[in-house]
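Late entry, written up from scratch paper. The run itself happened at the end of the previous shift, but nothing got recorded in the book at the time, so transcribing now.
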Amino acid sequence: MREAAMLKAHNPPAMFAPVGPYCHGLEVVQPTRFLFSSGTMGLDREGHAPDGIEAQLETAWDNLKAILAEAGMTVGNIVKVTTFLADRSLRGPATAYRQAVLGDHKPAVTTMVAGLLQDDWLVEIEIVAAA
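Output as recorded:
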């Protein structure tokens, strides 16, 4: 695995502190490569969405980790996470799961409530990673 790119967090004192486990801006200082994922749903290998937000979050993050691994990266290489949720009530579980996956790593984050393409899809996540 390649090491993460050199990153520098930016949380300017002239603005509000981050209200969660993220930074306002994350500068990629010396990357050699970037990886952009497509929106990744919590779908298993057969394309089925398991029941419930926890199962879909686990599957979505497992899918993202597989993409990162194929590129020789880990979650420590993630510089941006965008999460699309089917309902605002899913924000708490999605934030908690992301924090559990990322640990102390705090990339830039955006979370939106959106109509997803299928009714049984509860979450879609896309990432940008750098190495």
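The domain at 7-130 is CATH 3.30.1330.40 (60s Ribosomal Protein L30; Chain: A;).
(Scratch paper discarded after transcription.)
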